Amino acid sequence: MSLLTVKENISMVNNDTSVVSAARRDEQIVFDTKDLNLWYGETHALKDINLKINEKEVTAIIGPSGCGKSTYLKTLNRMVELVPIVRTTGEIMYKGRSILDKSFKVEDLRTHVGMVFQKPNPFPKSIYDNIAYGPRIHGIRNKKVLDEIVEKSLRGAYIWDEVKDRLKENAYGLSGGQQQRLCIARTLAIEPDVILMDEPTSALDPKSTLKIEDLVQELKKDYSIIIVTHNMQQAARISDRTAFFLNGEVVEFDKTDKIFTKPEDNRTEDYISGRFG
Ligand SMILES: Nc1ncnc2c1ncn2[C@@H]1O[C@H](COP(=O)(O)OP(=O)(O)OP(=O)(O)O)[C@@H](O)[C@H]1O
Questions:
Q1: ipTM over 0.95 threshold
Q2: Which intervals of the chain form a coiled coil (predicted)?
């Protein structure tokens, strides 16, 4: 059912509370993954994935090495297509639109879905130009508008005060933790709905890690965040829901409190208590 149809239904059948509440539930889902399978050549990396990701929540994806976490994340902005041997079946709906359908232009998708990687990867440019890069590609040339976007994005990523007097300096001169917040600011500059984060703190020291974790908590007020992490304390600290992946399957997906206190599946319990992985 498309979002428009959902909204129409709300106004048409607002005397039927069950339909209204079902429609409201649908509106809160940003990604709806249905029976997703993915192969790299012969390797069956994702198996029958069914996940509904809520808007404006932090969703953590945990699981042992090689279980398909990054692959799943990279299907959500279609980065996985860069691997020529990839084949997928099933469906991923982004707010009611099928993203695997080639009529959904990948450039369009990536204006809605930004990504932050494991290692900070600023461009070899000034701090200012790193942030202005995306907006310029989208045709924004007005200096005043760009200045505003740069400041807003850097403030949004809690790094403005540290860099406001050195915007023309090369981004490589920043510390690792600052570079990662700069990369988050660069993502914010394109005003996405969703931010994908692939182990964003694994290359950072504990202090920078905490800053990013605090930032994620702030960002979820405005964005839907999906974060792959090996750090279970981190998943427990910052996420609302957690999906536990194992051998390409989702073993369990639930509220984070539940996953970490009363998991349904023994394999989840074994993993979070450190018995494997
Ligand atoms: N480009 C690729 N070509 C072929 N196989 C791949 C490719 N990328 C990943 N795979 C395989 O797909 C499976 C899932 O890998 P993926 O990187 O998604 O796991 P992961 O859970 O993110 O692992 P890690 O925690 O180590 O990063 C693995 O068997 C991996 O070897």
A1: yes
A2: none
